[in-house]
Design goal:
The protein has about 475 residues and is α+β, with helices and mostly antiparallel strands. It has 17 helices and 16 strands.
Amino acid sequence: MGNSESNAYQNHLSRFLPEEQSDIDGLFETLSGSSGSAGAKNVKAAKKTVTLAALQAHTREPLPEPMTARLYSGMKSIDLPGKSSGLSEQIAKEQFVIFMSNLLKGNADEKISIIMRMIAKTGGPLKGKQILEFIEDLITSVVHVLSYRKELKGWTLENTRDSSSGVKALASELLSELRLPDGTKPTGSQLLETNFDQGVIEDWVYRVPQISVFLSVVIRQGLHVLHSLPDQTNDILNLVPHCKGIKGRGVVSLFDIPAIIYINSHLPAEMQHKWQLLFSSRLHGESFSQLCAHIVNKGPCIVIIRDLDGFLFGGFASHSWEVKPQFQGDNRCFLFSVFPTLAVYTYTGYNDHYMYLNHGQQTMPNGLGMGGQHSYFGLWIDSDYGKGHSKAKPRCTTYNSPQLSAKEDFTLDAMEVWAVGDVPESAGKKGKKSILDVDPQAQALLEMAGKSRQSEGLREPLEEDEDDDDDEN
């Protein structure tokens, strides 16, 4: 028995690099030292244990208490050969290492029994509402610990929308990915009351990468272990993008932290490391000319809108916006909603009406649109700034999105546009050109129609990329 225990333990230990093993050993020593007596140092490391009280004392500030209790339940769930399951209220070194190994290095099969016990101490089957509570605790903990460790990269709980509704929205969206063995997805109250067995939940963990990523962040940042080592995947490194262009401007973004994390995870990998504010209706005014002047030729962008009913929604444009009477972009574009539900709607293959921007022409619609068709867009902001529509009966043909706004024809309350990834060099001097400079034809058409340049005198240079926006530096 001793041999099998030792071999299993060594197999798990061997997954970690020497410096990682040292990090884990140091954490266990700290935790077991604070739970033992003064003579504990004379006891072999393998005989030392960690109590719930010691774990709570270690994580009191970085993690909400419910998540600490869940982590402890997960550690307790590790059965050691030759030992009765669940009899000990303390965590042995082997359990601690296997917990770390399975959750940080393991596949869905290795993680699932731990996750089941983290959701409910009794294990499965589990009701949808139990799983929902776990996801909400998990997301709350991610936001809390990243804020506590100053790892939000320029975002703060003060310059973003309140995260509480975002936590619930993201948790509901992730829960909705649960599928029964026959492939059906329960919805609404049925989803909350359905019992899911371990096989179904394992499949869900495998298909929904956020669960494993969030657990990894909670362990690394919450316990302060393996958080600075080079083995972190891009999923963790780019979980939150660097925020640029908002510091010191008194703006509270329309996005909340959970929405930023979720939307960012759907962007192409090379665009996930940075978001830079290009346009805010509260900073730059409610003017379509100003909007165009700040977003044309600035690279891929995210547009987010709040209507007068408080609904939040938008789209990702995979290419630089150009003023022209043709559709542009490619199948990486998508539409999304942030409130009252959080969801991403991707390309269907039905048509190539990804994105559209036109201004100052008499023969084609003037405005910014994504998906659908002229006069029937999935998302439309009219050049008569303040008006828009989201038409989908029953769904937008390009993105399969429902109506995103509260009313089909909506009034705009606020709008932001964020450049994602690195702004192209071709952007040149940012924000200094009017759309009428960018498109002389539009200026000529305006003059022919007897209209003046409304954007004259309103231009302002957008501030240069601020390297000091990142609050972890």
